[in-house]
Design a protein that fits this description.
The protein is built from six helices and five strands. By secondary structure, the protein is of the alpha/beta class. The protein has a single domain, classed as Rossmann fold.
Amino acid sequence: MRTRRMLRVRLHPVTTGSTAAVTRPTRVVVAKPGLDGHDRGAKIIARALRDAGMEVIYTGLHQTPAQVAETAVQEDADAVGLSILSGAHMTLFKAVKAELATRGADDIILFGGGIIPDDDIRTLHELGVAQIFTPGTPTTEVVEWVRTHVGARAG
């Protein structure tokens, strides 16, 4: 199987006689933690965010919570989006949140999507997960939420 390499462009603040600085695009890590092997939705979201001008790092399948958190820290991510269809959402969101905190990165916004019951969504919000998108959510809604809630952090 061929893998694609992603070209990343990092913009750094520059001043050219004015006080205005150039800002970098919002940087989002999209991850598939755990044993779930269904990544079509994650790839669709990653592409929608990329097409909206964001820098997206897709981790691929079967990532551990530690790997997801380490990628987010190394890539200086503004947000992490998890796609979980396996039913292990409570365990995995909590574990990624804890791994981010142990790395001093609990300011990175955590959101996600998958087949998640309403009661669990409420609990995840209480645990600090910023937003959960369920199947059928339009990609435009995800993009707009990220722009509004994450873009303010990045810009």
